[in-house]
Amino acid sequence: MSVTGNHKIKDPSSCVILLTLGCNLRCRMCHLWGNNEKDVVKPTLQEWKKFISSIHKPVSSDFTVIFGGGEPLLMSDTLMELISTCHQRGFRTSLATSGYLMDEKMAKRLAEAGLNYIALTLYSLKEEIHNDMRGNPDCYRRLMKAIEYLARYRNSLEIAIDTVIMAPNLEGLLELAHYVKNDERLTSVFFQAVVQPFHSAPVEAWYNSEEYRFLWPKESQRVDLVIDELIKLKESAPKDRKDKINNSISQLKLFKRYFKAPQDFIKKTSCSVLNDNAFTVSPDGSVNLCPYIKPIGNIRDGDLKDIWYSQMANERREEILHCQRNCHHIINCWYEEEKIDQGS
């Protein structure tokens, strides 16, 4: 352990590997499909494996490697090899996907590779809403088939649902939560608040813009009612059974504040990125602590330890410590409960 400023640097606890930022779908709330990676020089399979082998697993740690994107299944062969490598190293593995490219063979391969957790993104149980948000008329059917295929191997694999709170699906979110609660194949559901579409040019007050305002719920009171019902559902879970809503109550309450006044949401303390001890590896091999600042290195530069404790990494940590960006990522994946004033 070393220190930068007053911040103790611990060994990393998890990482996200982005094999690609491309996607085969054209989602209305995400523009990653617009990425052109033809000039991206990606690590070879052996470079990826070497880097994963350089990650030191802390004692008594449940180190997790999350494969995200873009759509990771676009690189299925590399993905399977890396999940297997992580499994052999004793790491827990997680995959986030639309499920569109899933067939039974791929579901079986993922389970055999040792995948622990898969999150399928489902926006609504109303087929037309999900398909419209995905930009493809076949997405809902294929996602449901993906659940069916994966469930055949669920003894070794947790199947979860991710969704986004936004205007088009707001009225169906409680129904979706009940669906997950009652389906024994599914282990959990995780809610996120809609933000400006990824890979789109920054727009001030994006939620009021002509292009994106269809995503933003018009009545924050209605959002409050829906979230309050989700909280009640979470609180009603029997104490002897696992609660299937993965969000904490404090995070759900924070969503209410966000939808009331997104322009006023400023982080109250230092960014939780540093507290999480996590990092992301981009498709070109660059290692990042935060997507808004420069990388701390590249997996081709050497072992993770050399990158993690480098002078460059310490400089990036200092930037994060003093960052004043109104970053809404910290209400979703980077949310840190004990650091934010909750309110209701």
Any chance you could write out the topology, listing elements then pairs?
Elements: E1 2-4, E2 7-9, E3 14-18, H1 45-53, E4 64-68, H2 76-88, E5 92-97, H3 104-113, E6 117-121, H4 127-134, H5 139-151, E7 158-165, H6 173-182, E8 188-193, H7 220-235, H8 249-260, H9 272-276, E9 278-281, E10 286-288, E11 297-298, H10 304-308, H11 311-321
Parallel strand pairs: 3-4, 3-9, 4-5, 5-6, 6-7, 7-8
Antiparallel strand pairs: 1-2, 9-10, 10-11
Helix pairs in contact: 1-2, 2-3, 6-7, 7-8
> What's the story with the biggest beta sheet?
9 strands, mixed
| Low-pLDDT ranges | 338-343
Termini distance?
37 Å
Q: Give the total of beta strands.
A: 11
The geometry reads as globular
What integer value in Å does the Rg equal?
20 Å
Mean pLDDT across all residues, rounded?
89
Order of helices and strands: EEEHEHEHEHHEHEHHHEEEHH
- Structural class category: alpha/beta
| Proportion of residues in helical segments | 25-40%
Count, helices: 11
